[in-house]
Design brief:
Helices cover 51% and strands 7% of the residues. By secondary structure, it is mostly helical. It folds into three domains: 5-39, no CATH class; 45-135, no CATH class; 143-170 and 186-214, no CATH class. The strands form three sheets. Strands 1-4 form a two-stranded parallel sheet. The protein starts with a strand and ends in a 12-residue tail after the last helix.
Length: 226
Amino acid sequence: MEKTKVMRISRQLFPVKIMIDQKQLENVKSFKYLGSILRNDGRCTCKIKCRIAMAKAAFNKKRTLFTSTLDLELRKKLVKCYVRSIALYGAETWTLRAVDQKHLEGFEIWCWRRMENISLIDRVRNEEILLRVKEQRNTLHEIRKRKANWIGHILRRNCFLQRATKGKIQVGIEVTGRQGRRRRKLFDDLKERRGYYHLKEKALDSTMWRARFGRGFGPVVRQTTK
């Protein structure tokens, strides 16, 4: 009983009263489950910051290797394999807001700066960093690809999660009457680009799904005017 907690994920943060053996379970605002931090507001900002902090710690632990005289392509592969994989653990379930995207893009540039031993006081622009390492902004693209492949895998299965996802895609229930902008949801990235019904049809063919959606969006390329 001492380890049993309860958390309500809702806009209305009222406590939940659950009694077991005449004892009320403690209400918590967050807890860690399988390496991910779940919060009662349903947002992923805290989780993303935690993954980025863990990835930065992993980078600093092997910094001598990443900043060595090894070939550039080899060092980039090491960073993507050893560091980025830690940062993007469970990213297919994230709902990204604008502030979360900035955190992830900032972490991506942070890795390339540290790898090339370029500090902020050197006054080197982010675009110049990407040119030096021959990279583009890939993090958000990688997350969208993982999310698309994960949802496609769910839609091809026969389980409760598949039925719940299918119902959400088909119905798309929206709650109206609330003030302010609607919160961003898990399927919003896919809906903006393909449409829910199109997703359901294409998911049945895994090869076509990966070819047309999972790998269909390239990295983010930003052009700056001089």
